[in-house]
Amino acid sequence: MRYRDALGIRAAAAACAALLALCMFAFMALAGYFALREVVDPMYAALITAGGCLLMAMAILLIARLITARKRERSAGVHAIEAFEDFLEDGVDPMMGAWIRRHPDAATAVTVALGIAAGYSGSVRRILQDLYVHYADSETERRSSRRQR
């Protein structure tokens, strides 16, 4: 079965399910009205039933708005992540970048382990900071000598 045919069948099934759900909610409201009519005046039963339906409709609209708001935030965040990745790629040594691309799982594990070690131990944190300062200085010198050539 082709993708377009399957998509059409799924759309028809979703339309039928939506129609049945609409009928279900209408019968639920009617049943609620009849049940409330036995307890309170019919006018108040109708008002309570209409209020319940209004609250349900507002809840559905709120959920739909929250779902669409998340999608907008994610799409804006994708651009920020790409900009951050570009910034990080500019500062990474080419050999280190190649190793990270070849072994992303190991790079993630090493990063997490170093982060945990730096978080728990002050001496490990100082060693990592010293290594970073030394590497950053040597990398800056290497890049400036490359530009002079």
Summarize the helices and strands and which ones pair or pack.
Layout: H1 3-39, H2 42-91, H3 94-102, H4 104-120, H5 122-148
Helix pairs in contact: 1-2, 3-4, 4-5
What key attributes describe this structure?
single chain, 149 residues, mainly alpha, 2 domains, 5 helices, 0% strand, elongated
Could you explain the architecture of this structure?
With 149 residues, the chain is an all-alpha fold. It has 2 domains: 1-91; 93-149, no CATH class. Helices cover 94% and strands 0% of the residues. It contains 5 helices and no strands. The protein has helices spanning 3-39, 42-91, 94-102, 104-120, 122-148. The chain is elongated.
Offer a quick outline of the entry:
By secondary structure, this protein is mostly helical. It contains five helices and no strands. It has helices at residues 3-39, 42-91, 94-102, 104-120, 122-148.
Number of strands: 0
- Mean pLDDT across the residues is 81
**How many structural domains in the coordinates?**
2
Order of helices and strands: HHHHH
How far apart the termini lie comes to 61 Å
Question: What share of residues is helical?
Answer: over 70%
Biggest beta-sheet profile: none
If helices are DSSP runs of H or I spanning 4 or more residues, what is the number of helices? 5
Beta-strand percent range: under 5%
Low-pLDDT stretches are none
- Pairing-aware structural class of the strands and helices? mainly alpha
Radius of gyration: 31 Å
Q: What general outline do the C-alpha atoms trace?
A: elongated
